[in-house]
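Async update (no meeting this week)

Hi team, since we skipped the sync, here's where things stand on the single-chain job. The sequence we agreed to prioritize is pasted below, unchanged from the tracker. I ran it this morning and attached the output directly underneath so nobody has to dig for it. Comments welcome in thread, and please keep replies under the output.
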Amino acid sequence: MNFKRLWYYEFWPFWIFYVPAYFYYFYLALKSRRWVYFSILNPCMKFGGAFLSSKQHYLKNIPDLWKPITIPVSDLDNFEAIKHQLKRMKLEFPLIVKPDMGERGKDVEKVTSFDELKTYLNTIHQSVLIQEYIDYPIELGILFYWDTNGNPQISSIGSKGFCKLFGDGTRTLETLVDANQRITHRKTILKERFQTQWDQIIPKGESILVEPIGNHNRGTTFLDARQHYSTEMLEWVVNCMQLLPGFDYGRINLKIENWNSFKTKTGIKILEINGVNSEPIHIYDPSFSIWNAYKTIFKHMHIIYLLSQHKLNNHSHTLSFLNLLAEPERY
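Output:
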């Protein structure tokens, strides 16, 4: 176990880091007198996008120009039909495959062959999305909402620094992995993935992309990118979010070719959109203090509460806790 990771909250298990937020949630629920007050938001998403929300359901409202080619697959056993569909859509490897109702990047993988795709499908037990791999260099998480006056707001912009290892001409790939606290916990997985290079000395200056998936638990560094906010970014996000009926609050994960993409309206692809469970991911910047992180989390929880109360005051209805437990799949 790498005990150095315990000193940095960005590496803590989700349920531990969010313990103070659980208490604040109970306070807000009591204040609202509704346990699931958040469910009134984002009627385009199940439970407001808190969980069990189909990504494909709301992505279908986004124009093809702004999203990867995506194939939803529910019959995982009919692999020949899946292969035929991939060929018909002219999708080539590598591809991204992910659960349609996954959370926090769990089970998102990049596959490079039909064999890898089949292996993945044999291990998953729910509908998946097979997506075109977008190799734009900048991946962002933009948290957006409409305030109670109907004004569009961007409250968080986080960029993702993908984990790369750089050779020094003296150390093997294994020793480079051992020296990087972000990925030492994935050593077994990486050894299998890079088995041909594992014991080799990596030449000086050579870089190896260890993980192409922008997931914090896989070594990706989340960075505060709020300095890149622009009116062009806000305008582009507003135009997209207006296409989602009833969207109130959430985070757009997307890739862009460069920081001028919002100005030129080119080189932008939305990977997915999350609802009320969205985190302001800039808080995981290594330079961010834990106190500022909690302050930011509580601020966004309060925003969700205010938006919910505003809708309730306008005679809308939220689910009860029992409704939430018994709610059938509607999407």
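Quick observations from my side:
The two ends are 42 Å apart (CA to CA).
The chain has a mean pLDDT of 90.
Reply here if anything looks off.
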